[in-house]
Amino acid sequence: MNESANERSSISSDIGEVEILNDDMELEDQRFRFIITYLNIVYGTTPIAFKKAIINNEVNRKVIESFFDKPDRNIILIFENSDALNILTEFPIPLKSKIICFVKRNESIIEKDIPLKKQIAIAEFTSSSITQLSLFISEILWPIIQRRKTLFDWPDIVLRSCIENISELTNLLTIINGILRGQTILSIPHEIEFLSKSDYLRVLSHNKTFDGRKIRLLENLIISWKNQIQKVINYDHDPPNNKYYTLPNVEIEFWTNRAENLQGIKTQMHSPLVRRLAEVLEISSSNYFSRFRTMFRDVIQSLAEAQNIALYLKALVPILEIIEKVQDIKSISLYFDRLFHTLALVWANSVYYTNIGRFIGFLQQWTNLIILKIRDLLQPNDLFVDTDFDEPIQLINLALEICLLYKKSYQRRKELLPSYFNDDRQALYWEIPESKIFERFDHFVDRLKMLKDILLTAQECSIYESIELGGIDADELQNILQKVIGDFKSTYAVFRGLSDDITNESNLDFPNAYKTFRKIVFTGDERIANILHRFLHPCSNHIKTTNIDNIYRLLHIFGSTLQRNRLKHVIDEYANTLLNIIENALNEDQILFDEYIKDSSSVWLLSMPKLISHYRWIEQLRQRIHNHIEPLKTIDIK
After folding, report:
1. Which end of the chain has less Cβ packing within 10 Å, N or C?
2. Does a structural domain hold residue 269?
3. Residues of the domain holding 610
4. 475-526 per-position pLDDT tens digit
5. How many other β-carbons are positioned within 10 Å of the β-carbon of residue 1?
């Protein structure tokens, strides 16, 4: 991206001049065009590049669509990370680059027919801009306010209002700065700086009574801290949001960052200033001292939980890294048993990681990773070939086998779970409906089966292109056959034109195209069945040797396609005819054999040694019988 764009650090942006460009993005949704156009202004990259990063990226597109179409989704954050565009609904941990923030002006959906600048506010900022503002307030503005000599002509009410507002802004910036760095920073207002003095108790008291205003200030601070800390503590009670198909690193990083954050909170609460604050509340018999003590105890308990879980989940990091680096689709399944073995160890030994909802989310994340790896290595959109179908079909079969092994590995480890618990501990089972874990996985498998069916059908139907029909109605039947081939090719070509991932259940173009494909194939099978019927029907009543070669040739050239349901039904209709044909042919072979036994002195064999002549004749008879029977092996006559 353009480096000059990174140097910009404006806190807000005027979107009044943002115009939707008339380029070749081919986007019907003007809301997407608005976002992409603004990013083009900020980063100086072509809108086409952002289309690839947003529209063609499944996760990014879903986040933006939710922002547009769901009233409760009020914000999206767009930023660069490792040369890729990331879109989130909350601040990243930590913030390392400029963030473009799109915020709804009202809690409603973003309408297409209303000017977008009236519905969306935009801000640009970096962590440095927040830090600079905080430094300006604390190092320049606050000292000026504190010097009464420079503000002697200000009314007291105005001065107090300024002090309160600046203090509130300082606290807010402190909190935001912590969020941007992935930390919870407890705000320390300037008004309690007296606690840092050695005679802080004397400052607080007057005539052996405590200053009520200062005590209320400290109590309000406890309330503010409690709200901050409670958000951190309560966050893990719900499983992570997997609608954007997050990967296991999200859960692992969550507990690692949570442990670090809680450790930071504990350190802040152990600081001399905060300990003095607690001492003042205790001495003054404030009810908020017990709240502070409870809050501190909650932090300690949550920290112990986070550190324990982070420690156990760390054992999964090597497995995650290995699977992410796998370059051969066959190798993925080698790590399934190791994965579920480690998960079982975590489940059995971590006294804290027993939240079944959270664990389900973690299993879903591993499933997302397996889907992603199979998809990346398989590249399903590139498998729609015109020839050499064997290789892509083998790849799909391998992918389906790996999917089956993944589920079996989970089921096998689930059965072995009691063996992971010691004798003195009650076993905790994975009482989880498999649909909760494998719902998306099963959709993925269904898509692979659709893809396999398409390629198998294409492989069978490719036989039609080499068929040349003969007989009285050859021209008419050949035209019917060419119509079948043409319709099939045009329908099959649709799949190669699909740009979105065909294995993604949100892609409805693929299943719709598949339904159309099945209808065309069904119609084609009906037409081919009509051709077979017209060839076989004349032979049903008058079985002659002259018809045998034509029928055998027909069975041979249609080959494996005769196993298709509709075509097989036609063959079944004429089963007796076909059996009579082969019976008559074998009877003729029997007659030839009997005649040879009676008189084996054929003229053309007299020049050979007797044993060799017998062998040659028997070999020819065997080949004749083989030619009669072989075509029938392609069909299943009942």
Report:
1. C
2. no
3. 457-634
4. 888 888 889 899 999 999 999 888 888 998 888 999 999 999 999 999 988 8
5. 16
